[in-house]
Amino acid sequence: MKDLHFIPIPLPEESPLSLLKRAAIRNGYSTCRQFLSWQNAAYKAQNHPMLVDSQFAMLLCAQAGEYAHEVRQSFYEINYSTYSGVRVCINQMAIDRRLIRYSAAAICTDCVRDGWEKQVKDLLPVENCPYHSKKYISHCPSCERKITWVNQVLLACKCGNRLESPSCPANDVILDRKILFLLRLKSQKAFDLLATSLKNLYWNIENSSYEERRKILSIALAISLDEPEKIASSLVNLYGDSRGNNLDFYIAKLNPFTPEKTLTTVKDILYREYAHKGISKEIPAPLTCHQLKIYLGLSQTEWTKIQRHEEFTNLGNHKSRFDHSKIMRIKEIHEDLILQSLNDTQGLEESLTAHEVAGQFKTNLDVIYELKIANLLGNVNKSIRPHRISCNAISNFNENYILAHQLAEELEISVRTLRKVIVDLNLLTPPLPHKHILTTVILKKDIEKIKNHLTPYEKPMHRSPKRSANLLRVKSEDRSSYYNTKEASQISSLSTTLLRQLVRVNILHVHYRENKPGYLFHKDEIHQIQRKYIGVSEAASLLEIPTVKVSCTLASNGIQQCTGPLVDGEANVLFLRSDFIGRKLVKLKSKLRCHTESQAESNLIPIKHAAKQTGLTQADMLAVKAALIIPLRAQDNKSIVGISPAELQTITDHLSNYKATREVLRGTWMSRKTFCKIFLNTHIISELFIKRIPHINKEDITKLTEFTSKYCNLKMADVIMGAPKGHAYQLLSRGLLRAAHCPEALLTGKLLLDRKEIESMDYKPLIRRKISKPINIESST
Fold first, then answer.
1. Helix (H) or strand (E) holding 212
2. Which segments of 27-67 does DSSP mark as H helices, in order?
3. What pLDDT, on a 0 to 100 scale, did the predictor assign at position 771?
4. Are both 34 and 151 inside the same structural domain?
5. Residue 533 DSSP label
6. Domain for residue 4, yes or no?
7. Which pLDDT score is estimated for 559?
8. pLDDT in tens, 222-268
9. Contact at 8 Å (CB) between 703 and 665?
10. C or N terminus of the chain, fewer CB within 10 Å?
């Protein structure tokens, strides 16, 4: 960074680009581009000199001394918002960046002669100087060359023409003075309303005439300043004609963005003052879907029906704008739908709902819908009232068909038997979409065939033998060595449900009494359970934990229950007593105590809250925790999910070494796209997202700084040499300059140059190559 001979101090309402021009002129530079390049403040889209975090602003603030605060306040700030997008703060007002002049110049020669240019010239809607009542110049009137702030400092063009702003009538400056009034008013709500109105009225400086832009701007300013009479007159001036005014169109055009109170007043004024002058049905400008719905007076239900119409897809979609011919066609579609709805309403008395038909057929709705899809209950009407079925279709179905469950009920057989008969007789049935899974439709003329064929299927049902028939029988004289179910439950203190579970997993073996029905358990097996197994209540008293947590706690420590999976009604489980003896019990209790104490700490911070405090996502927070915190913890505490305040401080200290990637790139020639190609895609540098913004650490910043100081691209080479755009490319194509040899890890197809070689070169205009004409031999002879 070089020291400046002159530091401009901002004047009232002065534009940052005016500061740039004054600094370039007083320090001896002919253009702003040369001044920025020689001061290492290269201009890029994200490093615009009018922004407070640009290299030019930092240069002035660093050398302004006690005036650094005033200089910093004169620059514009970027405001990032999820809902309103990127906006530029001018005079403490957040303005949509699409309304800002970035590259084009707006020159008022009187402002230049006064010594400084104003902030209002940086707004695109302002086309006249409100201070001197003169039009801003953006092109040379002689050669029509575009004038930008980068290549213009003095009031002269390259063609030699002297620039002079033409004067304009006082009426043309009224709108520009209103915008200046809004800037000085510092009402964010009014300026947001102005930007929204310009966007919805399709204000465009490139694709519209000067008169049309001023009319739209007049409406937008009247809305933001709450001037209903001015809104009404401007609407008539913009869209009205000699045949009359379409007042409903005016109201629909204003509806999405105008405050409700102002819109009501404008509507009253329009119908009071302009209705007697003639009403026109012509639509002078296209309408969006929302505006069209209001213009036609449609409800959301009616508009949804129109969108589902087959012809609407040919007219547009929900993002389209509809002109006069398309709106007339949509009106016709709406009228046709109204007539169709009236016809369907007249036939309601001759139809039934699907629930009523299901009640008649004694079936569910799925069967009715299947019959409708198969067209057995009439054609399906998907547009209006799809669940109503005509009585004529129901009577025709009852005359020709019958459902399988209805016929099975008449014949007193099962549906399964009836379907076997249909397969044996090879009867034809109407095809259904789900292949007769839900029901089967049978022709009534085949009922007699089915009745005659039913005799082979009328067989008695045979039940399988009981499970007790396969058990060992115990004789009455051996009864003393066994307990019945009640005695076994009392002696072992186990429920009958748990005894059944032990039988299922082959821990107990059950027998059957021979004379009287009943199950028996051997006494030795019942007594063996007390010595070999331990219950939940006893395990809870040994481990000093609640009974409810015994099963899950032991399962997490590798001790499984012996009774298999739980079943309905089971209140207890058993574990091996050998797992609760000696060192195993001591080790288990100490492990549970450490886990309980760590979980009982009230100062642990959940991962979700810790991520919010540090600005990380939960996934990144878990990754940082695994890399920094888990290795420092004791072995018993590594499974704790929460983070202590000391650990959170360690993470915060670690994140302080990171810096936003975009802030690092602003000080270099590299764009985000080039950075991704060279460093991110090759995994040389990795990013961490803090508050949804990518950051890199100090080591990666050092790598990036060393790379940008060693290499540069073609655009930066032109800036360093003070050459016009494309000069470095011409040197490469003619062999006067060679590409730099980068390491193999950085070879991504990006053309780079050696910065030291570029800095040692001076700009010299290239001479165009002359192509020699071929010699005509015949003419020479």
1. helix 210-224
2. 32-38, 55-63
3. 45
4. yes
5. E
6. no
7. 76
8. 999 999 999 999 888 888 776 678 888 888 888 888 898 999 999 89
9. no
10. C
| C-beta separation of 427 from 449 below 8 A | yes
Q: Give pLDDT, residue 777.
A: 39
**Alpha carbons 325 and 314: distance in angstroms, whole number:** 13
Res. 17: pLDDT tops 70? yes
Task: Supply the pLDDT for residue 220.
Answer: 93
Dig out the tokens for 251 from the structure. Answer: 């109201």
Cα–Cα distance, 619 to 718 (Å, whole number): 43
Closest CA to 79 of 192, 194, 196, 223: 192
C-alpha angle 371/377/381, rounded to 5°? 95
CATH number for 262: 1.20.1160
Q: Which amino acid is at 281?
A: K
pTM check: above 0.90:
no
Q: How far apart (Å, rounded) are the C-alpha atoms in residues 137 and 129?
A: 10
Same domain, 641 and 620: yes
Nearest CA to 430 out of 394, 377, 386, 352 is that of: 377
Residue 101: φ, ψ to 5° = -85, 120
Do 124 and 108 lie in a common domain?
yes
**Tokens (6 digits) for 258:** 């105008």
Phi, psi at 49, each rounded to 5°: -60, -20
Residues 487, 432 share a domain = no
If asked whether residues 169 and 20 sit together in one domain, one would say: yes
Q: How far is it, in rounded angstroms, from Cα 93 to Cα 96?
A: 10
484 shares a domain with 426: no
Please report the pLDDT score of residue 759 as a whole number: 87
- Which backbone phi and psi does 284 adopt, to 5 degrees? -75, -20
* Per-residue model confidence (pLDDT) at position 386: 52
Please state the rounded mean pLDDT for residues 165-183: 91
pLDDT at position 181 is 93
Residue 434, both tokens: 């789900």
Q: Would residue 5 count as lying in a domain?
A: no
Over 456-503, what HEC string results? Answer: HHCCCCCCCCCHHHHCCEECHHHHHHEEEHHHHHHHHCCCHHHHHHHH
Distance CA 450, CA 210 (A): 88
**Tell me: the pLDDT tens digits for 559-610?**
777 765 554 444 567 778 777 777 777 777 766 665 554 444 546 788 888 8
Question: What average pLDDT does this structure show over 316-333?
Answer: 84
Of 2-11, 395-404, 428-437, 482-491, the one with minimum mean pLDDT is 428-437
Q: What is the pLDDT of residue 358?
A: 86
The DSSP code sequence of 353-416 is EHHHHHHHHTS-HHHHHHHHHTTBTB----SS-TTEEEHHHHHHHHHHEEEHHHHHHHHT--HH
User: Is the domain of 327 the same as that of 363?
Assistant: no
- Which domain does 616 fall in, by range? 601-656
CB 122 within 8 A of CB 74: no
Strand ranges, E, within 473-617: 473-474, 482-484, 510-513, 519-522, 533-535, 574-576
Give bridge partners of residue 95 from the DSSP assignment: 88
- Report the C-alpha dihedral over residues 30, 35, 38, 39, rounded to 10 degrees: 160
Q: Is residue 265 part of a domain?
A: yes
Q: Which tokens is 326 given?
A: 């398309």
Dihedral sign, CA of 405, 409, 414, 420?
Answer: negative
Amino acid 776: pLDDT: 46
Burial of 625: CB neighbours in 10 Å, binned 0-12, 13-18, 19+: buried
Which residues on neighbouring strands pair with residue 93, listed in sequence order?
A: 90
pLDDT band at residue 79, thresholds of 50, 70 and 90? confident
Report if residue 182 sits inside a domain. Answer: no
Domain end residue (candidates: 110, 142, 173):
173
The per-residue pLDDT for 354 is 83
